[in-house]
């Protein structure tokens, strides 16, 4: 994952369906950073914990990966990291558009 290539690009595609919603990627990122604590995630995002649950369910529906299960969360976390690494590689012109 640390090197550019097909594996990293594949990971990034896992979270591509979440880009159409302004709330899903930030919710997933907060959930990962809170060590999967939905109440802490809700506090950070200033939403109700049920809203976090709803958004995480949408993440599962769109990606096929359940962030509430360790196996799904690991892959989604890896995808978030790969996405950040890819964004750092992108030329400035691509980041703006």
Number of helices: 6
Structural category is mainly alpha
Mean pLDDT: 87
Percentage of residues assigned to helices: over 70%
Poorly predicted sequence stretches spanning 5 or more consecutive residues: none
Q: How is the main sheet built?
A: none
- From the alpha-carbon coordinates, what is the Rg to the nearest angstrom? 14 Å
The 3D shape can be described as globular
Number of E strands: 0
Q: What is the helix/strand order?
A: HHHHHH
Into which percentage range does the β-strand content fall?
A: under 5%
In whole angstroms, how far apart are the ends? 25 Å
Q: What features would you describe in this structure?
A:
The protein has 97 residues and is an all-alpha fold. It has six helices and no strands. It has helices at 6-15, 24-33, 38-45, 49-63, 70-89, 92-96. The chain is globular. The model has no long low-confidence stretch (mean pLDDT 87).
Give me some keywords for this one.
globular; 70% helix; single chain; mainly alpha
Strand-helix topology:
Blueprint: H1 6-15, H2 24-33, H3 38-45, H4 49-63, H5 70-89, H6 92-96
Concise description?
With 97 residues, the protein is mainly alpha-helical.
């Amino acid at each position: 994952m640390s090197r550019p290539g097909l594996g990293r690009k594949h990971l990034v595609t896992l979270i591509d369906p979440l880009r159409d919603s302004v709330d899903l990627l930030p919710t997933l990122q907060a959930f990962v950073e809170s060590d999967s604590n939905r109440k802490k995630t809700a506090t950070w995002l200033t939403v109700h914990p049920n809203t976090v649950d709803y958004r995480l369910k949408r993440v599962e529906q769109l990606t096929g990966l359940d962030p509430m299960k360790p196996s799904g969360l690991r892959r989604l976390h890896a995808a978030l990291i790969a996405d950040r690494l890819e964004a750092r590689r992108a030329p400035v012109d691509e980041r703006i558009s």
